[in-house]
Description:
Layout: H1 24-56, H2 65-86, H3 95-99, H4 102-135, H5 155-183, H6 189-194
Helix pairs in contact: 1-2, 2-5, 4-5
Amino acid sequence: xxxxxxxxxxxxxxxxxxxxxxxxxxxxxxxxxxxxxxxxxxxxxxxxxxxxxxxxxxxxxxxxxxxxxxxxxxxxxxxxxxxxxxxxxxxxxxxxxxxxxxxxxxxxxxxxxxxxxxxxxxxxxxxxxxxxxxxxxxxxxxxxxxxxxxxxxxxxxxxxxxxxxxxxxxxxxxxxxxxxxxxxxxxxxxxxxxxxxxxx
Length: 200
């Protein structure tokens, strides 16, 4: 199956395609909670509309709207990377992949998943080093990094903690993908990644 033949993200009726079988239960969990972060974008939009109304109608701009919408959008974009991995839709260079046979494709899928798992693990370690500075004082007490503005929300510290958690989850997801690609038969690799089945 060529890359152009991989099933689209949406079914003809507009429904999302199922989570690929190779993503396992972990991928389905990620998919289920993704709605929360999608709603975060809607909330951010509502806050911006409220801010425009307050600023231009009542001449009373808020202190918190800009930083809050930035924070909500940021966590949505951070989570989006994990969401793409759970649907096995992360970025690939497919020049070789499209002309490869089933066995080579399976090997490439395994190799890509392993490399991505290792990379995500290193990023998670770097994220932990970042969290140590953003969430703890030198004496070990907890103090979240703040924006330093008049609102001075702890959004930077919270975002860095969230990024660490997502990177850990991303590492786990790529490990799951690698294991399931190893288990899959070469002929089933693209079929399994294109549509999920009910059994695990």
